Amino acid sequence: MKALLVVAHGSRREASNEEVRELARRLAAHADNTYDCTESAFLELANPSIPEGIQHCIDQGADEVTVLPYFLSAGRHVVEDIPAEVHVKQQEHPQIDIHIAPYLGGASGIVDVMLSIAT
Amino acid sequence: MKALLVVAHGSRREASNEEVRELARRLAAHADNTYDCTESAFLELANPSIPEGIQHCIDQGADEVTVLPYFLSAGRHVVEDIPAEVHVKQQEHPQIDIHIAPYLGGASGIVDVMLSIAT
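^ Those are the sequences you sent over. The predicted structure of the assembly is below.
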């Protein structure tokens, strides 16, 4: 069973966190049957945390969890903080395949999305 | 003459700012002939500023400038700060059409990009 966990920074502005949760729901609706579980989690300032989000996926039966960093640049959060949190959960659950997808800002498709909203 | 100005937050980490500049170059390469000028600018912490970026587009002959917020959520920067800076430049140059495109995180195409990098 596959799970997709969208990981965002988290904000003091609750509406921004809710935008991420809504995005996870849209992903669930668009992913057809690729993922049995599509969730969101936050590095800080909002809940659930990344470990809690991963655990929730596992509790629902996931044996493969894809963590997708919803970040625009490959800063410390993407390069160090998220991998560190994922590593801890991977050690706890060696039988689960937990891997990190490329961060959003590095996706080549961003260019087309930007041109589509610019015109 | 049309210009596209990608506006990002700006970071103390210069590599993140350079990612945005590189994105603007990729946009230029993918936009065919829609824009005669594709630039980047930053709300804070990096150069050029938003007014400088808009001015640069005008100096190059733009009579229409599309400001595209490279942001993931509709927080204060997107809702207040960027419009305020654009408004000042619009007042300075009433003959130029300066408008703000939707911010990246609100684009429906983001969902497809995320699914493409997740799998």
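The CA atoms of residues 87 and 98 of chain A lie 9 Å apart. The first strand of chain A starts at residue 2 and ends at 8.

Shout if you want it in another format.
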